[in-house]
Design a protein that fits this description.
The chain is of the alpha+beta class. The protein has one domain (2-65). It has one helix and four strands, in the order E-E-E-E-H. Strands 1-2-3-4 form a four-stranded antiparallel beta sheet, covered by helices on one side. The longest helix has 23 residues, at 43-65. The protein is elongated and about 45 Å long.
């Protein structure tokens, strides 16, 4: 399942069940190529954590560019 969020327009997230009850969330940033992977049992919590992590990564990228 692919997810996009208005607050992170350059990011795309994918949620996949990789084993029974085990999920992986992958995130990819379209401009600079940043990415993240999280694995766990609660796909919604993983997606929330991925969004927080992606937002932090965006802040770090902006700091480096300024």
């Amino acid at each position: 399942m692919e997810e996009k969020f208005q607050d992170l327009p350059n990011w795309t997230f994918w949620v996949d069940e990789i084993s029974v009850g085990v999920y992986k969330v992958k995130g990819k940033e379209d401009v600079f190529g940043a990415s993240l992977d999280l694995t766990g049992q609660d796909p919604q919590e993983l997606l929330r954590e991925a969004r927080r992590t992606a937002a932090d990564m965006d802040k770090q990228i902006r700091r480096k560019l300024n």
